[in-house]
Amino acid sequence: MTRRRQIYEGKAKILYEGPEPGTLIQYFKDDATAFNAQKRGTISGKGVLNNRISEHLFTALQTIGIPTHFIRRLNMREQLIRQVEIIPVEVVIRNVAAGSLSKRLGIEEGTQLPRTIIEYYYKDDALGDPMVADEHIACFGWASQEEMNDIADMAIRVNDFMCGLFAAIGIRLVDFKLEFGRVWENDFARVILADEISPDGCRLWDMKSNEKLDKDRFRQDLGGEAEAYQEVARRLGLMPEGEETAVLDLDSHRKKRGK
Fold this sequence. Notes:
alpha+beta, Phosphorylase Kinase, domain 1, D-amino Acid Aminotransferase, Chain A, domain 1, 2 domains, 5-stranded antiparallel beta sheet, 14 strands, about 30% strand, globular
């Protein structure tokens, strides 16, 4: 088997050189981190589930005209994606008070916000991904004003679509993180959605019980992380009842064989 060239390894994914110029292979790991990697662990089968969930959401977003880096899912843990120049700004969309917003402003977790809030964070683990304003982004040239306008417009469209999608399966989309990248066509750069959308980067609560179905279960030592991710996949129709055991057992067998 030809050894692939590794391009990058992050906390949750590995990027390999793709089969064609301008493409990469994105591999989803089971590694789990929190608090800028100060807390580390593993969620069994997370990579398999996030691969499926992200594929489903990116494909759905493409149908409403959101351009993304996703091309197709290759196997249980890998996707073929377009290579992009990542814009070093994380975009956080908040519908309900939770996490750092509740801590910073003293707002009770679970409070419905009067309007959706978009926040920007500079992508730098060593600095703790500090929150920044439009002025910082413009001053340091991380993105142009036109690009930020496109990003904000896409973020609102993604939020509107995903709020409805999750509400239809009894899940409240509390908040989530998006990343964007540039693709170059001759001398023209276009901004598209990149990275992933999964329970790793979304807060997802059951609408009736407020049970957390996301990585907060790992952050807060609640337990049941794998079951929560499976529940999201199951409600999205990606994992029929009883399938999760077979899928994750098969993946475990493949990893042991080094495939």
